[in-house]
Amino acid sequence: MIEAAPTEKRLLRLDMMPHMLCPGCGHGIVFDAMLRVLARRYETLDGVAFVAGIGCSSRVVGYVDSATMHTTHGRPLTFATGLKLARPDLKVIVVTGDGDGLSIGGNHLIHAARRNIDLTCVLFNNEIYGMTGGQLAPTTVPGAFTSTSPEGNHEEPFDAARLVEAAGATFVARAQSFRTRLFEEVFAEALDHPGFSFVEVLTDCTEYFGRTNHLGTGADLLFAQGREEPAVDADLATRPTLRPVPEKRTRPTLATGVLHRSRRSTLEEAMGLVGGAR
Amino acid sequence: MSARTAEPTSEKEASPVSGNIVVAGVGGQGVIMASNVIAQVLLDAGFDVKKSEVHGMSQRGGTVVSHVRFGHDVHSVTVEPGTADWVVAFEWEEGLRALPYLADEGVAFVSTERRLPPASMSDHRGGALAYPAADASPRGVVAIDTAAVAGDAAATRAAVAQTVLLGAVAARLPFPAEAWHTAIRSWVPPKTVEENITAFERGRAHKPASPTRLRQAPVVARPPALVSIEAAWCKGCNICVAVCPERCLELDRFDVAVFAHPERCTGCQLCSWLCPDLAIDVSYQAQEEHVHAAAGPR
To answer: Is pTM beyond 0.90 here?
Structure first.
């Protein structure tokens, strides 16, 4: 007798599979880890809603058998804010990418964090615009080649976790697609957290970032992440620059794990939508 | 080697002037305590006794061997291979491992209890390596199903069953039962004195018949895993092939991952966790059925 297969597959829209992500794309790994966490806590996703913007990362919500919204570019948090205020009983999960959440929707991100609305926002950071053709993103590391930085990036990137923490988020964590168990851990904590919880996941774009920068295939990028895993602590490490371009370039070292956690009254509590300040 | 006057296989009437005993087993079985009991009896009988032991991985399933040498004047603390008059082994494979110590005319009392040695985990599966069969007992080996002989004396504490072997060796030595009882009382935990003495007496009375069959089925550390791959979802990114520590997976000529070497799989799930296409599932065979299958027809 073979025991029942792992249960996260029951949360998929099986008729939509296989998904459209490229071979070796880290987003699929993070998506699977999200489903595993949700499969452990929910029998069905009736009480859960997914909101996503535009981009490779945001496409993953289309494969979840749940209430999902695929919204306009950069605006998943505004749609989610409306949804949460109308239906405070729903567990609203926002899936966004680094271009969607930090550039086009950067304003919405900091204001959602400031309002401390009870959302769980997962930002897939692959340091590039994958879906639109590999353009420079606000998270692209200095020195990296993209289709809009053919001589290497000259800009300093956003540190998404530190930005959101400064904007007032009450739960900030960072994980990697290589460390799926770490991601599962912090994502589960983010779901439990009352208030705006933000999880940045470092994933890899194999086609536009990996191939353009000669970093190898999906497996090479993934293991490069693993080799540079720093100690998990609350102290945000600073990004070393990649310029001048070294011979072998890999993702810079960043602190992972839960980086910030605090408690203040959420927007719903302040508006009296849920049972008072806890 | 010191001179002996007694035939080791002879009964109580012969009185040895010297002898060598090797007690072997697995960490946590009470090897050291048993050799302490033997040494206590010998000391009380007025012998010079030297005892030494190797117990690096005690309590962790590793080999524990204790050497007891007695005589009028003993110098060396270890038993030379081929010179042990008695080998007392609490575990079947440890008993066979200790056989090179046995003298030509020596007798080994070996429990048929079996503990899967850590070495057989080298294939990361457990239970897959052949374990020596009890039927093929070498000459001089008396196999004793200690748990069966001890019966209800070992009902609450399985380790008590090994005291049967002390009884078996005591039956070959010219010391009164009271001396053994006294030594057992002074070394075993106070709560287990009566159980141990009962098991000891049953072992003393036990007449070993033909070699006993192994009582236990193989112990399996982890049931084998089944990796199922949704071929239609696989995009051939090679991550699972690269990440598998046991090299179980391969890409076929269509660049689709296949579970090529199921016999090596440990069920670590890395391939499933790191598959970007959600194409890999790891499931486990139920534990009992696997043990049953591995034990084979009895």
So the answer is: no
